[in-house]
């Protein structure tokens, strides 16, 4: 054999080596295909085992499992921050509630005060948890976060929210108070008639554009503690961060609202099935825009960014943005410029007793 290899021409030897390499690649590819087929078979067997167990359980109890809708007492609270596209998103819930069979309720507080009295806190918590006729329910309103666990009730709602770049939010609110928006153009606003631009307001030290007006998103997430409303409080910042991570199912950002809606639809189809398509094609749900809004100059932005209040509010916004982008990275994938929700990536196996 060694003699034959020596006597083989170099071209034949090269072809033999290439043929051997191709054969090895083919074998490796077949092995990989077999491994993938084995994994698919294991998942199919596991799903079959789960189905058999569920079927036996149904037969043992002598009745079919109750549909989710009969037991569904889910409550979502969207304690919306003003001028973060909250009306746009809420309108989608109103458009979907009939089709998806859930209730939408607006929490209308006197003068839009986000802080409830203690007695109203108790009333509200009792209403939300015991009002069975309104379940499943989607509550929305400009209300600071409430920790339901401190009121001695069973069950907690799921919180969601949206935040926005602090300066962009304040600019939008400033012009909204003067010119309104295209949602209700005929409604007279509180500062209607004031033609001063946001830049002029900042330059003259006006109260409607003062750094203290930036202090809103942190207290909305911090809650009903007095320190939450102390502008510039680092304790309030840390409490708001804690609540965002531990008490909110999802917090999106205005700048990426469509992604927020897409993830909500994937996580909570009971409420938000059809929301993404509605947002993309709806004629009214996402068209609310503040009128006469003029972008601030770089000088105006730089002046506001010198404030400690802006630095703390912006730190919270950046924290929320990072958390949302982390959730999104594990929930969707981009292909050909479009986002797609990832399919379920876990399954059950080795289920005993059989």
List keywords for this structure.
52% helix, single chain, alpha/beta, extended, Rossmann fold, 14 helices, 354 residues, two-stranded antiparallel ribbon
What would you note in describing this structure?
The protein has helices at 2-7, 10-61, 68-71, 86-100, 118-130, 166-179, 198-204, 217-222, 234-247, 257-267, 269-272, 275-281, 298-305, 308-329, and strands at 75-78, 103-106, 137-140, 158-163, 248-253, 332-335, 338-341. The protein is of the alpha/beta class. The chain has one domain (75-333): P-loop containing nucleotide triphosphate hydrolases (Rossmann fold, 3-Layer(aba) Sandwich), CATH 3.40.50.300. Strands 2-3-1-4-5 form a 5-stranded parallel beta sheet. The longest helix has 52 residues, at 10-61. The protein is extended, with a radius of gyration of 28 Å. This is Heparan sulfate 2-O-sulfotransferase 1.
**Strands, total number:** 7
CATH evolutionary superfamily: P-loop containing nucleotide triphosphate hydrolases
- State the low-pLDDT regions, or none: 61-70
Question: What order do the helices and strands follow?
Answer: HHHEHEHEEHHHHEHHHHHEE
Helix content: 40-55%
Q: How far from one another are the termini?
A: 58 Å
Strand order of the largest sheet: 2-3-1-4-5
What count of structural domains? 1
State the CATH architecture: 3-Layer(aba) Sandwich
Structural class: alpha/beta
Average pLDDT works out at: 86
Radius of gyration: 28 Å
Largest sheet, in brief, is: 5 strands, parallel
CATH topology: Rossmann fold
